[in-house]
Amino acid sequence: MRLFGIETEYGITRDDVAEVDPVVESMELVRAHLEASFKRRWDYAGEDPHEDARGFRVSGLQQDREEDEFATRDAHRPFSFHDMKSDLVLPNGARFYNDHTHPEYSTPECRTLKDLVAQDRAGERVLLRAAQRRNKVLGGDHVRLYKNNTDFHGHSYGCHDNYLVARSIPFPNLVAGLVPFLVSRQVIAGAGKVGTEAQESGYVPGRYQLSQRADFMEAELGVDTMHNRPILNTRDEPHADREKYRRLHLIIGDANMCEYATALKVGTTQLVLDLIERGAAPVCELDHPVTAVKQLSRDPDLKTVVTLRDGRKLSALDIQELFCESASRIFSGTDEEIDWLLREWSEALSLLSQDRSRLVGKLDWVTKQWLLESFMREEQIGWDDPWLASLDLEYHNVHPEQGLYLGLEAEGKAWRMTTDEAIEEAMWNGPTDTRGGLRGLCVQRFPDQIKSMQWERIQFTGGIRSRSLDMGDLFDPKEVRECAHIFQVASSPSDALAAWSHRKDRAI
Amino acid sequence: MNQSTMPERREGPVDPMPQSPRPEEGGGPRRQETGSPEKENLMKRMRKVDPKQAERYRQRTGE
Fold first, then answer.
1. Is A286 exposed, middle or buried (0-12, 13-18, 19+ CB in 10 A)?
2. Is B16 exposed, middle or buried (0-12, 13-18, 19+ CB in 10 A)?
3. What's the first-to-final CA gap in chain A, in angstroms?
4. In the annotation, is A215 catalytic?
5. Which of A155, A402, A488 sits opposite B6 (nearest CB)?
6. Contact A415 B38 (CB under 8 A)
7. Which residues in chain A have their CB less than 8 angstroms from residue B27's CB?
8. What count of CB pairs under 8 Å joins A to B?
């Protein structure tokens, strides 16, 4: 398995004020996580959204103008841009901050699906507890948080899945293999949505569709992530040794409530990356991918076919089956997790065409459709009733006594990969076999001796020797554990860095 | 609050991945029956949702 992670921007609102200020609310929510005052430690040096994976640097993004407008609008506020971002690194190695007025939780890097799902769900709990603390200050249960991707007024915010990929894979190969896979992936990973909308334009109630994000896809490839959003994002921010790695940063995905959908979404994508790496991905390039992603999303009966460049006409299930069959042929028997994944992927595709009811509690769009149709029958209302958009929204509410998905889960009707104990554990400890867990360990052990952090580097204060832990190429699980052991037993970061440097010198 | 140790992942035989529960096994997704107590609870929760909630809900565009 390769390294992967998920970043989720949450929707945030308050029900006790007429006008919600999303900048302040997101900032206050993130800071409510803290017991002490906020200290700025995140280092933005490794972030440049203008680098394009196709080998060039764009001079400007459409979102730059919006950022400038926000900066002007927010200039009167009594805090700086960095204070507003309130970047935190948590003891599990996750990043929690205010991104474009949405509280965002980025899991630590994971190597197994079990870890990933637990860390993703730990994010829901981190957000929930921050909201509970914020609500204490507000004097009521006012802050609501939604793990979804749309506000039903033409605004979308993302859930991004990330994968470490060898830079040796030619980018055109990634495009050819991934675009048809991602366009069709919504049959297993879509979160479901009532009605349709487009970027910055009106919402049309009515028909049910598979995906929250499909409406907002406007390009096949591109580096803009707030406007003209691409099916395959070409942003080139590896957060690792640039010579060796890419970070595939996908913005097309929906935020999933179902653990099964999260596991299938990330697991199947990494298998497709493995296929591409071996030159074994099925050839099924789409004629019009941007049109196709919307057409497929808007047909919950899954009968729609799209045209391929070679003239074939395939449904989303057909395309997924091609990828699933190729992966099964090549990766079957690799390890237990991959065997589970191949089996479940195949079964989910089969059930989607045969007995969809067995996927309630496993796939979000199926679960939400079942809930809404049950409600419509009870209340004698149609798809155009505005109540349904509200129910759609509440499906994603992370409050256990309000959220519709969490209600279903509490009834034991949702499939679980985690346990409540595993989620609680994941809030405090990252995976032991990735740099994410190591990052979290440093936060736990040396919180006052960290000068700055970014994904691939930790800079410590004090000492006369080397003061940075460089993790740009620290991906071997054995090495990660050795490094973690050193940081676990050392009395100071300086001692740990010296011991780690000595160990690496001996290994050369 | 913080746990200061980084527990070792269990070695040896890996935990089996959970199997998909079959409907007859209980505890997992199943064909839903009209009028079951669980469904009634969910319907109650759904009826409590303010029909205007989505109309009032507004966010800024994110990434």
1. buried
2. exposed
3. 26
4. no
5. A488
6. no
7. 412
8. 179
Classify burial at A330, counting beta carbons within 10 Å of its beta carbon; exposed 0-12, middle 13-18, buried 19 or more: middle
**Which pLDDT score is estimated for A83?**
86
For residue A237, CA distances in Å to A52, A105, A242, A365, A440 come to: 8, 18, 8, 31, 22
Interface membership of B13 toward A (CB under 8 Å): no
Residues of A in contact with B13 (CB under 8 A): none
One-letter amino acid of A338? I
- What's the Cα-to-Cα distance from B63 to each of A163, A224, A492, rounded to whole Å? 18, 9, 38
Q: Which of A155, A367, A391 sits opposite B46 (nearest CB)?
A: A391
Place of tokens 């860095």: A497
Burial of A39 (0-12, 13-18, 19+ CB in 10 A): exposed
Verify whether the Cβ–Cβ distance B62 to A102 is below 8 Å: yes
> Which positions in chain A touch B29 (Cβ < 8 Å)?
357-362, 367, 413-415
Instruction: Please compute, for residue A254, the number of CA atoms within 13 A of its CA located in the half-sphere on the CB side.
Output: 32
Question: Does the beta-carbon distance from B63 to A251 stay under 8 Å?
Answer: yes
Which among A68, A83, A99, A473 is annotated as catalytic?
Answer: A99
Tell me the residue length of chain B.
Answer: 63
Residue A464's pLDDT band, with cuts at 50, 70 and 90, is low
pLDDT tens column, A77-128: 888 888 889 999 999 999 999 997 999 999 999 999 999 999 999 999 999 9
Instruction: Give B46's contacts in chain A (Cβ within 8 Å).
Output: 371, 375, 391, 394, 404
Q: Which one of B28, B43, B54 has the shortest CB-CB distance to A378?
A: B43
Contact A270, A337 (CB under 8 A): no
SS3 assignment, position A30? helix
Which DSSP state fits A269? H
Whether the per-residue pLDDT at B21 is higher than 60: the answer is: no
Q: Provide DSSP, B1-63.
A: ------PPPP-SSPPPPPPPPPGGGSSS--PPPTT-HHHHHHHHHHHTS-TTHHHH-------
